[in-house]
Amino acid sequence: MAKIDKLDDRKKGDRLTAQLGLGAAEQVEATGACLTPDQLADVATNHCSPEERKAALAHFSSCRRCYDAWVGVSLSLVAMESGLERRKRPLLSLRNMGYLGSAVAIAASVVVFFNIKGDLIQTTMPVPAEKALEQVQPSEAERPEQQLLMKEEDNAPSATTPSAETRNKAKRAEMPLAEPAAKSVVGKSVPAPMAPPAALDQDTIRLEAGIVITSSGWLSGLERYCREKRYHENPAQWNLLREEGLQLRESETDTVLMEKLSAILATMNVTTELDEVIVQCGVILPLLAGEDKKE
Length: 295
Fold this sequence. Notes:
It comes from Desulfopila aestuarii DSM 18488. By secondary structure, the chain is mostly helical. Helices cover 70% and strands 0% of the residues. Among the domains are: 2-88, no CATH class; 202-294. Helix 1 (2-25) packs antiparallel against helix 4 and helix 9 packs across helix 12.
């Protein structure tokens, strides 16, 4: 089918080329009026009589404009016919089925070839001889002697396993040595386990930090905390100092100390950031130094 289609296209092209060459060779003066588009289409599609076609070809040889129009219409018709024929061809045509069958046959032949080759390799390769394991069995004459030897070996004391007397002696020698060790352990006093740091109450933390639960002691402890830069070791203690200052201000009866506590607590904010604690200490230290000068 594919060859027939190609031959038809080639014949149409050859026919059109011959007609174009004939029209170009027979150029004479224009004869007759120019053809209309309908007449050009009839001539291009061979829907006219032989006389009309002959007159049109004679006119084409003398009129360049009609000749170019006829060539354009003919080429357009050839292109349209070839495109429609290709579209009409079904996908499952004989040609496509032939291509598909050829591909399947080639794949099947390759698979069969490799299978046969593998079978030939397996059959032609020499199989290694299997060596049978021979079990050496003693003769009847040797069996009684072997049994006697085995009994003697069982009754003989082994070099690695100690006898019962040896084990008893070892136990007697070990018992006196174990008693003093036990007495020494009992005589020693076992120290009490230390409490974890989390079990310490707030009072212990305050005592270790050197903070006295009085207004003046609190002021000195705050100054020591900022001046000695203890915030590097424990920034979270800043919040404890602030809470104690608030409690002391509520319970303080001295008006002067209450004003001092209020002025200092106004600059103290709750924070756990080291940078903020450093800034607040820098503000509080001049206040404490100024109050000491006043006193």
